Automatic annotation (TrEMBL):
<protein>
    <submittedName>
        <fullName>Uncharacterized protein</fullName>
    </submittedName>
</protein>
Length: 21
């Protein structure tokens, strides 16, 4: 949503959020 470099994030089954560039 925010203006950043190509950033991606995924939500694991446990409910945690992991983002990687």
């Amino acid at each position: 949503s925010m203006r950043r470099r190509a950033e991606a994030c995924i939500v694991t089954e446990g409910g945690h959020i992991e983002h990687f560039l």
